[in-house]
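Protein record

Derive tokens from sequence
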Amino acid sequence: MAGQKKFERVAQKQKTRQSLLDAARILLDEGHSPTVTEAADKAGISRATAYRYFSTPEALAQEAVLERLGAEMDSIVFAMSKSAEPEDAAAEAISRILAMVVRNEALFRAYLSLVASGERASNRDTRRVRWLTTALAPLAGGLPKARFERLVNALSVLAGIEALVVLKDVCALDPEKTEETVRWMVRALVKTTLDE
């Protein structure tokens, strides 16, 4: 009987936490960085309870964004085509990430404004690096480790909202030119790395 009650408490805590994350995501999708109080109100959860799960709005927003986007990214197949040229295969992998960023632009922009304010939650998320390491795995064997890691780090700049903000907002490129430019940069980085 005690085991059943413990299981029910854990299940209820997970449900409450998920409700808060879902409410935060709705607000983020609308382009609004929610406070813990706003997420609690939207989820129909007491504010005191909400603060037991997330002590700051930054922690709430970071987890909400990363959970949703992580699940979407994990569902994309990133394996580089073995028959394609490495530059083209890498450009395709980055293009898939960029397409996901575009689909979730409002969410990414809300998250970016949060981290740009310096209020980022303490734990770093390294999914982008993991995705690219997986996507570029066929190149890893032919490159020194340090050079491969440098390539992954450089491509990480192109595989997120940061590249979209610069190319769309600063350079005023349309979506087609944005993708074309990112693919060109990826090919150049891969080719340069392979030619060194």
Observations:
- The mean pLDDT is 84.
- The longest helix spans residues 2-29.
- The CA atoms of residues 44 and 62 lie 21 Å apart.
